[in-house]
C-alpha cells in the first residue's frame, strides 16, 4: 500500500489521515468546492477537488474519485463512514481498477446491506434474531404471525432504511391498513414493495459489538458499545463502552454469537453487529460493514487503533493482536458535538465558527475538523467534533466528560454541548443502562420543566 | 458553553458602524476585515480564489495592452483526469470559435472534451499536455470577442 | 475540602482545576494583572487578582494569596509546580491559617530542599548516591577524595541550584582554583559558601521515579520517567515512560530503593526522586517535593490521575489504588511546546497567538492554556503546551507524537515544535536510551548540517 | 508549523491603510478592531477595564452636570482582603483632603489604610463595608480639585 485516497470529509477523513501517517503511508484527500479550506484538505499530502458542494456530485462522484486515485497513484481507498462506505458497487469498481478498497468484500457488503439476506445468514449461524416472518405474501400470513408472537408487531420493508416502509401495529384491526401503506411507501421509496413482520421490542437497548477480522482467519471480538442515547430520529448522540449493567452471562453469549456471525459471513476487516438488548436477551438487528462514528470508545478501552488495523488487514497482513492480548481497561464515553439545536428538534445549523476552544487534560480525546474561522457548510452531516472521555470507571469517565464539555467553547453555531451536559448529569443516565426511549422521555421531561419554569 | 444570540438593533448598528467600514473595505485591498464589539461582531471577506490560475490571469491582464479590458472566460475542467491537447493545437493568441474542442480530460478511459464557450482569442493556457487536473481547475482563458 | 485555591498559572493551573472539578470541588484562581484574560482565570469558579505582572509581586505574593483563600472560603491550596510549590515557609503559613497545603509536610520540603540533608537521609536509607564528600573544610580533604574516586569530580554548593557554585574539575592542578571560585560564587548567590565534592558521572541518563504516599502508610511507586532530552541549560524538553533500554534488574532495584527513600523521609503526597543513570548503576540526585511538569507520561501508562490522588491524600483519604492494581500499559512521550527559538539558544519569545490549532485523535492528550488570540506575556515560563502521546509501544508513541506535532499550528511566536520533530525522527533518538549529552550534541550536529547546506 | 515573519514595507502599509482605520476606530465605540491581509495584520484594542467600576464611573459621568469634566482619580486596593470603612465615614459628594483615610483593607489581621491621593470630592463609592476586594480593585472615585 503506497498511497491511500480518503474518500470522505470531516473528522473521519482526518481520523483516516492520522492512521495512514502513523503507519508512514502518504494520503490523498478529495474535497468538494464547499470544503476547499477544510482541515482534511490541509492535513493530507495531496488533495483533489472532485465536484461542487452537493455530495451527489462530489463525495459520491465515483468516476472523479477513482480518477483522482489513478492519477495520484493511490493504490487504496478508505471510504470512512457514510457516503460510499457501504456501496458494494463502489468496492467492485475499486477492485476492477486495481485499487484496494479498505473494507470488507463487495459480497459481504451486499449480503449485509440486504436485511432479509442478512437475517437469513444470521439465523443459519445460530444468531438470535427478532421473531419475525419471511416476506409476507398476504394478510393471512401477517395475521397468523402477529397472533402467535403477540402485538405490538413491526412491519418492515426488505429494502428499507431511514424508517421508510416501517409501521408499528398495536392491535389486529390496524394490521391491514398498515400493511398496505408500508408496502406502498416502500415501493415508492425503493422500487420494492416487499415487507416482512417482526415482533416489536418496546424500548430495547442498542447494544453493538465491534469485530475485526483478517484474511488469515484472525478474528477479534472487541466488546460491546451501548448506543442507547439516541435522538427521536434514532441517530446516536452519546455512546459508551462497556455497556453498563450487563451481566457476565449476557456478554459471554453476545461475544460468542458475534464470533459465529463473523465466521458465517466470511467477514474481513472492521464491522459492527448491532443488537436490540431486551433484559437478558438480545436480537440481531443489522451489521454495519464499515468503521463507525463511535469506534473511539472501543479504541480507548482496548488501547487499539481500529483504523490502522483496517489498513493492515487490507494490506493482507495479520491483525496486530490476538484475542488473548486484549483486556478492556476502564470505561469510555463519546459525545457527538453536533451543530444542532436540541430545543428545535435537533435542527441542523450552518455558519462560520468565531471561537473554537477544545477541551484537554487527562482522559480526554478530541476528534474534530474544526478550527477557529472554519466554516460549517449546510450540505453535509452536522457533526462538528467527537469528544471521548476515558476513565478508570464509568463515574470517572462521566466526570471527565462533563468537565470537558464545560471547557468546550464553540461560537458561531448552536451545538449539542449544553444539552449533553444536562443528559450526563441526569440521575437516570447516571444510574446507567437506559433504553432507547430514554432520550425522547428526557426531552419531554425537560420541556415540561422549562414550561413550568416559564410560568 | 455556547454563546447566546441576543436580539439587538441590527439595522441601527449597520447604519452607524458597518456602512462606513464596508465603504472603506471596498476601497481597500484588504481580503478580510473583522470587527468585534461587546454586543456584536462582523466580518467582511473578499471572495477570492487564490490559485495559480487567478495569478496567471492577473499576470496576463497586466501584460495586456492598455485598452479597455475585454471579458475573459475561463474554461475549466468538469471532471478529474489527465488533460490531453487536441490536434491541431490551439496556440496562445489564436482566435477560436465557440464550441471548438481545445483538448479533452481523459478519465477512466473516457475522453471528456474541453470546449470553448463564447468565441474569442486564447489569452491564457494554464495546462499542459498530460497534466493531471481536478474538478473546476482553470484550463484556458478566452478573451471573448465583443 | 470545600474549595481549593490554585496558586499558579498556565497549564498547571488548568490541570489542577480539572482535577478539582473531576472530584466536584469548586476552585479559586489567582492571577496577575498580565493574566487577566488567561484561560486559568476563565475556567475557575472564582478568581482574584493578587498583584501586578512580576511574579514576585503576584504569584509569589504570599499575603495576598493567603488572604484570597481566606476571604473566598478556600480551605486548601494547590501550589502546582514552580512559584511557591517547594517553599516550606509557605506550607507552614498555610497550616497556620488552617489551610491545607496540597503537598508534603513543611519538614519534608525543607529536608529535601537542602541537598546535604537530603543526601544524608538517602545514604542512611541505603539509597545509592554519587560517591562524594561531606562539606569540605580544606583543600586536603578535597584532594584526598578526588585522588580516591578519580577525576573528573564535581564541586557543588550545599545551598545550590541552577548551576550556581558548581564546577567540574578534570585534573588535580585545577582543584584549588575551582574550589575557591565555587565557594565564592555560592557565598554571593546563597549567602552560604559551603561546598562538597562528588564523582562526576560523564553524560549520565536522567531517570526519575514518581512516588505517591498517603497518611495511612500507602505507598505507590509509579515507575520511572526518562528525562534525558534536556536543553544545554539542563531544562527538560522531551520526557518518556517507561525509560527505554533499562534492564529488569535495574528497574527492580530502582523501585525498591525509591520505596525505602519514601519511608525514610516519611513522605506524604506526590513526589519525584531524580537519579543519574550510568549503565546498570544509578545514583540519587535530588527529590522534588511537588507534582512535576512531566507527570502526564506516568498518568498515561498507569491510567491514574496523579492530581486527584494528591487531593485525596490531602483530604486524609487513602490512595485510590494499591501497588498490585497498577500495571504499566504501553509507552508515553511528552513534548514541551515552548515559545522559544532553538536556533537562538532557546531564547524565549512573547506575543499574541494569531492561530492556535491543536492536535487530536487516538493516543493524543493536550494540556495547555492557549487559545486563539491569547497573549504570551514575557514575565513567566515560556511553556505553551504539553503534548502527550500514548501508544502500545515506543514506536507507536513516537509515530503518534510526530503526527501530532505536524498537526500543531501555532502562529504569533516561534515554538519548539519543528525542532522537536527533528529530534523525534533522529535515528539516535529512535534507537532509545540516549544520555543528557545527546541534545547538545544534536544541536552541534544540526548546526553543522545547516552550515554545510548553506555553503 | 510556524509562520515566518517576512519583512514588508510596514511604513507604507501604515500610511495607506492603517491611519484611516485608526481614525475611524478612534471615532467609533469599538473596543477591538482587527484587520487581516495576506501579508500583514493589525489589531486595535481600546484599553478598558470592563468591570462594575468603570460602568459606575460612566454612569456617574452621564449624571454629572454638563460642565467641563474634572479629572477623576480612582483609589484602588493594593492588597487582597476585606474592605472596612473608617469612621467618620466619608460620604458621596463630600470634599476630602489629600491622604485622608477613607477606610482600610483588612488582610491577615493587618489594617492596610486606603488613602485619598489628590484632594477633591468623592464622586463614586464602588465598595461597601465588609466587601472582599482584589488587587487593583477600584474603591473610590475622587473628582480632583482644580
pLDDT under 50 segments of chain A (min length 5)? none
Largest sheet of chain B: 4 strands, antiparallel
Structural class of chain B: alpha+beta
* Global Rg of chain B: 22 Å
Determine the most extensive contact between two protein chains.
Answer: A-C, 41 and 41 residues
From the structure provided, what is the oligomeric state, counting identical versus distinct chains?
A: heterotetramer
- CATH class annotation of the largest domain in chain B: Mainly Beta
CATH architecture of the largest domain in chain A: 2-Layer Sandwich
Unreliable segments of chain B (pLDDT under 50, ≥5 consecutive)? 1-14, 35-42, 45-66
**Biggest sheet statistics of chain A:** 8 strands, antiparallel
Q: Summarize model confidence as the mean pLDDT of chain B.
A: 72
Q: In the CATH hierarchy, what is the superfamily of the largest domain in chain A?
A: ATP-grasp fold, B domain
Which structural category fits the helices and strands of chain A? alpha+beta
Topology readout:
The complex is a heterotetramer, with 2 copies of chain A (455 residues) and 2 copies of chain B (146 residues).
Chain A: E1 4-6, H1 10-22, E2 27-32, H2 39-43, E3 46-51, H3 62-72, E4 76-78, H4 88-96, E5 100-101, H5 106-113, H6 115-124, E6 132-135, H7 139-149, E7 153-157, E8 167-169, H8 175-190, E9 195-199, E10 205-213, E11 219-230, E12 236-241, H9 248-265, E13 269-278, E14 281-288, H10 295-302, H11 306-314, E15 331-338, E16 340-341, E17 347-348, E18 351-352, E19 355-357, E20 364-368, E21 375-376, E22 383-391, H12 394-407, E23 409-411, H13 417-424, H14 427-431, H15 438-454
Parallel strand pairs in A: 1-2, 1-4, 2-3, 4-5
Antiparallel strand pairs in A: 6-9, 7-8, 7-9, 10-11, 10-13, 11-12, 12-15, 13-14, 15-22, 16-17, 18-21, 19-23, 20-22
Chain B: H1 10-27, E1 32-36, E2 41-45, H2 52-63, E3 72-76, E4 81-85, E5 95-96, E6 101-107, E7 110-115, E8 120-125, E9 132-133, E10 138-144
Antiparallel strand pairs in B: 1-2, 3-10, 4-6, 4-9, 5-8, 6-7, 8-10
Amino acid at each position: 500500500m503506497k498511497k491511500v485516497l480518503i474518500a470522505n470529509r470531516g473528522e473521519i477523513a482526518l481520523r483516516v489521515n492520522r492512521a495512514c501517517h502513523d503507519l508512514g503511508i502518504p494520503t490523498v484527500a478529495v474535497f468538494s468546492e464547499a470544503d476547499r479550506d477544510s482541515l482534511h484538505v490541509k492535513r493530507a499530502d495531496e488533495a483533489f477537488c472532485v465536484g461542487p458542494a452537493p455530495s451527489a456530485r462530489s463525495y459520491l462522484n465515483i468516476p472523479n474519485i477513482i480518477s483522482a486515485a489513478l492519477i495520484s497513484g493511490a493504490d487504496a481507498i478508505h471510504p470512512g463512514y457514510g457516503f460510499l462506505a457501504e456501496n458494494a458497487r463502489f468496492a467492485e469498481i475499486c477492485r476492477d481498477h486495481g485499487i484496494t478498497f479498505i473494507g470488507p468484500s463487495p459480497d459481504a457488503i451486499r449480503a449485509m446491506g440486504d436485511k432479509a439476506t442478512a437475517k437469513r445468514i444470521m439465523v443459519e449461524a445460530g444468531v438470535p434474531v427478532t421473531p419475525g416472518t419471511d416476506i409476507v405474501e398476504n394478510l393471512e400470513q401477517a395475521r397468523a404471525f402477529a397472533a402467535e408472537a403477540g402485538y405490538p408487531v413491526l412491519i418492515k420493508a426488505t429494502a428499507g432504511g431511514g424508517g421508510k416502509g416501517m409501521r408499528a401495529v398495536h392491535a389486529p384491526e390496524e394490521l391491514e391498513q398498515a400493511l398496505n401503506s408500508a408496502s406502498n411507501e416502500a415501493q415508492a421509496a425503493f422500487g420494492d414493495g416487499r415487507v416482512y413482520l417482526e415482533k416489536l421490542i418496546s424500548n430495547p437497548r442498542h447494544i453493538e459489538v465491534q469485530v475485526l477480522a483478517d484474511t488469515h482467519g484472525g478474528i477479534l471480538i472487541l466488546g460491546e458499545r451501548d448506543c442507547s442515547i439516541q435522538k427521536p430520529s434514532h441517530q446516536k448522540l452519546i455512546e459508551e463502552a462497556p455497556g453498563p449493567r450487563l451481566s457476565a452471562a449476557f456478554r459471554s453469549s453476545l461475544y460468542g454469537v458475534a464470533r459465529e456471525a463473523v465466521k458465517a459471513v466470511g467477514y474481513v476487516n472492521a464491522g459492527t453487529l448491532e443488537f436490540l438488548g431486551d433484559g437478558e436477551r438480545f436480537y440481531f438487528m443489522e451489521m454495519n460493514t464499515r468503521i463507525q462514528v463511535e469506534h473511539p470508545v472501543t479504541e480507548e478501552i482496548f488501547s487499539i487503533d481500529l483504523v490502522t488495523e483496517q489498513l493492515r488487514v487490507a494490506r493482507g497482513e495479520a491483525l496486530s493482536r490476538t484475542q488473548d492480548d486484549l483486556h478492556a481497561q476502564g470505561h469510555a464515553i463519546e459525545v457527538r458535538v453536533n451543530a444542532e439545536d436540541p430545543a428545535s428538534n435537533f435542527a441542523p445549523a450552518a455558519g462560520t465558527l468565531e471561537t473554537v476552544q477544545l477541551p484537554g487534560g487527562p482522559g480526554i480525546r478530541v476528534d474534530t475538523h474544526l478550527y477557529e474561522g472554519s466554516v460549517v457548510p449546510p450540505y453535509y452531516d452536522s457533526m462538528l467534533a467527537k469528544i471521548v472521555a476515558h476513565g478508570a470507571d464509568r463515574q470517572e469517565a462521566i466526570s471527565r466528560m462533563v468537565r470537558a464539555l464545560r471547557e468546550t467553547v464553540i461560537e458561531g453555531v448552536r451545538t449539542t454541548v449544553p444539552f449533553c451536559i444536562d443528559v450526563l448529569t441526569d440521575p437516570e443516565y447516571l444510574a446507567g443502562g437506559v433504553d432507547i426511549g430514554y432520550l425522547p422521555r428526557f426531552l419531554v421531561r425537560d420541556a415540561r420543566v422549562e414550561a413550568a419554569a416559564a410560568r | 458553553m455556547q454563546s447566546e444570540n441576543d436580539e439587538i438593533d441590527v439595522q441601527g448598528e449597520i447604519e452607524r458602524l458597518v456602512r462606513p467600514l464596508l465603504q472603506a473595505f471596498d476601497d481597500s485591498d484588504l481580503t478580510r476585515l473583522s470587527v468585534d464589539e461587546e454586543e456584536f461582531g462582523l466580518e467582511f471577506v473578499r471572495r477570492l480564489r487564490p490559485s495559480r490560475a487567478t495569478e496567471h490571469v492577473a499576470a496576463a491582464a497586466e501584460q495586456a495592452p492598455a485598452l479597455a479590458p475585454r471579458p475573459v472566460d475561463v474554461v475549466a475542467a468538469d471532471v478529474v483526469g489527465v488533460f490531453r491537447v487536441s490536434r491541431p493545437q490551439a496556440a496562445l493568441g489564436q482566435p477560436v470559435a465557440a464550441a471548438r474542442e481545445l483538448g479533452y480530460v481523459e478519465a477512466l478511459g473516457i475522453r471528456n472534451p474541453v470546449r470553448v464557450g463564447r468565441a474569442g482569442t486564447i489569452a491564457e493556457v494554464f495546462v499542459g499536455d498530460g497534466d493531471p487536473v481536478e474538478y473546476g481547475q482553470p484550463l484556458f482563458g478566452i478573451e471573448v470577442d465583443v
